[in-house]
Amino acid sequence: INSKKECQVDLEFTTEHYNPEEGEERLGKCSAQVFFKNEKPRPTINVTCMRFMEKSKRQQEDYLLYKHMKQLKDPLDVISIPDSHGHIDPSLRPIWDLAFLGSSYVMWEKTTQFLHYYMAQLSSVKQWKTDEDAIDFDYTVLLHEFSTQEIIPCRIHLVWHPSKPLKVKYHCQGPQAPEEASGIEGSAAAPTMGLTNY
Amino acid sequence: MQGLLIFSLLLGAVLGKEDFVGHQVLRISVADEAQVQKVTELEDLEHLQLDFWRGPAQPGSPVDVRVPFPSLQAVKVFLETHGIEYTIMIEDVQSLLDEEEEQMFAFQARAASTDTFNYATYHTLDEIYGFMDMLVAEHPQLVSKLQIGKTYEGRPIYVLKFSTGGNNRPAIWIDTGIHSREWVTQASGIWFAKKITQDYGQNPAFTAILDKMDIFLEIVTNPDGFAFTHSKNRLWRKTRSITAGSSCVGVDPNRNWDAGFGKAGASSNPCSETYHGKFANSETEVKSIVDFVKSHGNIKAFISIHSYSQLLLYPYGYTTDPAKDQAELDELAKSAVTALASLYGTKFKYGSIIKAIYRASGGTIDWTYNQGIKYSYTFELRDTGRYGFLLPASQIVPTAQETWLALQTIMDHTLKHPY
């Protein structure tokens, strides 16, 4: 690998069941190769997992989570998760997790071998619509980029239904020029993530 | 709902000096329309002075009523005679009010001593400054407070000095909170201060250190920034100095030191989080430490604490040239992180700044190292990005505890390797 033009990162990590049950085996093992080319973002990712949940079971679990989320109290007046003290109300946890899911797509679109992102905070919820067939979630997050230490506010709009690929649109504020992009997860390059295995 | 009613009762009690001793709140289960009727009749009996929190509505809906002590027997007999079921929700309204009042005021009240101070929560600048004064008052022989300067906005900059005597003994410097949003660091600083007063005379290895060396601890190294994280922006990093010609505020205090100042690894854009400032030591928060270190002249270890990413770093950040003492610094770092991991298994990586994290110029420990302070280290505490700067308060004490083990390792080595 030509280290000027290409960069490969090999990872090993474990996954955990989103809602672990008593006595159930908790950890799945995964390995991944993340491939950066020409210092560009949107690295190619190859993931292999052992003990991955069977597809039908995954779908079932996704659907249960989806139903649970649909019943959540409207979080429109919520700001800052976690709060200044790092606290997340347990009832709001699924909202943070869903926000993280959308943010992870945005972060993948921006990550290069030199730019690394973290989701610092869910700063506000603009819209949380569950009356139709999908969860329509419009929110802002603060991303923290490590090498520049900058905090980047991003407005994200995601639409989630368990049987369809996640739809993410976003707009991040930049110090130079604002970026704008949209995307649909679930294409061949990016693996679709079931929330239960997140 | 009950909380609101209790509160208004409390307010009434406090303001109107009403007394609720012996009052009970009953929950009445009305089984049918007839029973609903009967309870409604009770409502009309003014002399009973009943206070319905949840009035009679329909069968199945509970009825909640506060009954003054003198009316209790009459009401209970009435209900029992008519076969109406009830339970006692609140046995004594006054004692509940008293308890709540205690809690309310306790929550706001300051700790009276460093023993009752809550180390497992994040504090304001005032609370931290109050803590310092208490600690000095409780251990006047060991601890003193020095003011080394003033911030851009005029706040005092304090350093705690821990000393068992001597005259300008070789010293260890520890600072936390230079980047204001890294709240676990100031919180850990408070814990370290208390720990020092607890361990001296109790822990032989630590006592040996403090018997020969002084410790300087600057808990809030960036007070203006810290106040700003409480009042306006929790994720503020820099100082709050105004830059002429720019609408952006603040300089990165960890790019403002005179070591590779202005080189690659800092920004010349005032709006950037890593803006180095117009010149080295432009920030009083930095200059105060520089002046202190130079005039003291006998500091042997300098440790600057940040968060997050779980790293222990040594110079350099502004150049790939290895530090002269690289081998020893690396070896000591390894021992320190091993000690740290021994408590909760928290894994830290270690190395030079430029290799382990990123190129950074004008950094604190590059300057202190170039001044001849060999044991110059920077910590990046928990976590690795899940909560980042917004680390849950429940992790403050474990973080401080494990970090202390690493600090002790470094201090111990400094004691045993005088130079």
Automatic annotation (TrEMBL), chain A:
Annotated keywords: Protease inhibitor, Receptor, Repeat
GO cellular component: extracellular space
Record keyword DNA repair present: no
Pfam family, one: LXN
SUPFAM superfamilies: Cystatin/monellin (SSF54403)
Positions of the Cystatin LXN-type domain: 1-57, 77-180
InterPro entries assigned to the protein according to its UniProt record, in alphabetical order: CYSTATIN_LXN, Cystatin_sf, Latexin
Gene Ontology MF, one: metalloendopeptidase inhibitor activity
Family note: Belongs to the protease inhibitor I47 (latexin) family.
PANTHER family in the cross-refs: LATEXIN, RETINOIC ACID RECEPTOR RESPONDER PROTEIN 1
Protein name: Retinoic acid receptor responder protein 1
TrEMBL record, chain B:
Catalytic activity: Release of a C-terminal amino acid, but little or no action with -Asp, -Glu, -Arg, -Lys or -Pro; leukotriene C4 + H2O = leukotriene F4 + glycine
Name listed for the protein in its UniProt record: Carboxypeptidase A1
Classification via Pfam families: Peptidase_M14, Propep_M14
Residues covered by the Peptidase M14 domain: 121-414
Keywords attached to this entry: Carboxypeptidase, Disulfide bond, Hydrolase, Metal-binding, Metalloprotease, Protease, Secreted, Signal, Zinc, Zymogen
Signal peptide: 1-16
UniProt-listed PROSITE patterns: CARBOXYPEPT_ZN_1, CARBOXYPEPT_ZN_2, PEPTIDASE_M14
Subunit structure: Monomer. May form a complex with proelastase 2.
GO MF annotation: an example: metallocarboxypeptidase activity
Functional note: Carboxypeptidase that catalyzes the release of a C-terminal amino acid, but has little or no action with -Asp, -Glu, -Arg, -Lys or -Pro. Catalyzes the conversion of leukotriene C4 to leukotriene F4 via the hydrolysis of an amide bond.
An annotated GO BP: proteolysis
EC number: 3.4.17.1
PANTHER family: CARBOXYPEPTIDASE A1, PROTEASE FAMILY M14 CARBOXYPEPTIDASE A,B
Cofactor: Zn(2+)
Entry's Gene Ontology cellular component terms: extracellular space
Domain of life: Eukaryota
Subcellular location: Secreted
Protein family (similarity comment): Belongs to the peptidase M14 family.
Residues of the active site: E380 (proton donor/acceptor)
